[in-house]
Amino acid sequence: MNEDNPTMAQLSHKDNVDPDEVARFAAIASEWWDAKGKFRPLHLLAPTRLKYIRDEICGHFGRDAISPRPLEGLRVLDIGCGGGLVSEPVARLGGRVTGIDPAGASLEAARAHAERQGLKIDYRDAWAEDLVSEGELFDVVLNLEVIEHVPDVGAFLKTARALIAPGGVMILSTINRTLKSYGMAIVGAEYILHWLPRGTHTWSRFVTPDEMGALVADAGLELGRVQGVVFDPITGDWSLSDHDVDVNYMALAREAS
Fold it and tell me: What's the pLDDT tens digit per position in 50-99?
């Protein structure tokens, strides 16, 4: 790792974690694996999100997405892993998963559940900055539903970029800043449907795809195709969309060519 890189000065800070956000998720850590509880939206989203992760990683590394363990041998970092809702299925696909989270209670839930499933996942009570200082590198960095909780997205993405091994990728999933996202992700999900505790999201922290592209470029990466993740209130299903990125969206970021 090049210690003369001027961006590294920004990677030593642990201030880029909002303690209120950490406490909010720690308080409901026991509910991570309750598909009908406070994390119900993530459980509903899981199949669509996992398909995107699998297909994008396999496309990048030239692997067969429909093979039993298409991520075999790839080292994967799940930043803000929470209770392990993504870490576990990625491990089942063959990934060598490290999950980090600053909320110890969430990690306890993650470790307990993984042990019951017979899965070996390296869960750590750590910040991304800790792994940078230790010289860790990963083939895939998962940055899912974390960005909207981070005070300084630019600094955070530079930290995450420093953890990507040569030829590796980052997968991003977050919420667009639109009136529609305010209505659905905050008013609808938190105040009307009570899917999430009130205060889970702050609209001003949502990042538009254009802003994301600029921030990713500033971190030395380029953003690939952005796909929306759309919820159908009638069927209760999520699906990927090439056109509707008004609320949730996902993208792959790779080394700039």
Answer: 999 999 999 999 999 999 999 999 999 999 999 999 999 999 999 999 99
Give the pLDDT of residue 29.
65
What domains are there in the chain, each with its CATH number?
A: 6-255 (3.40.50.150)
227 in Cβ contact with 220 (< 8 Å): no
Within 10 A of 15 (CB to CB), how many other CB atoms are there? 11
Q: Confidence class of residue 233 from pLDDT cuts 50, 70 and 90?
A: confident
